Amino acid sequence: MLVEPVEAIVDRIDYIVSLGETVMSPLSVTEHAVRGVLDRLRNRTVHEPTN
């Protein structure tokens, strides 16, 4: 039947997607942390009182 090859393709695609998510997850966390630090630095310079 045609179902088994299609299931194999779907399983392979699912595996590739999960690999991509595994690789991207730490990068996303790192990017989020860096953006948070940059936002804090940017906000600190904006809100400093000028004397």
Fold and architecture overview:
The longest helix has 45 residues. The protein has 51 residues and is an all-alpha fold. 88% of the residues lie in helices and 0% in strands. It has one helix and no strands. It is rod-shaped, with a radius of gyration of 22 Å.
Features:
51 residues, mainly alpha, 0% strand, rod-shaped
In round numbers, the mean pLDDT is: 86
Q: Which structural class should the secondary elements be placed in?
A: mainly alpha
How much helicity do the residues have? over 70%
Counting copies of identical and different chains, the oligomeric state is: single chain
Write the layout of secondary structure elements.
Layout: H1 3-47
In short:
With 51 residues, this protein is mainly alpha-helical. Helices cover 88% and strands 0% of the residues.
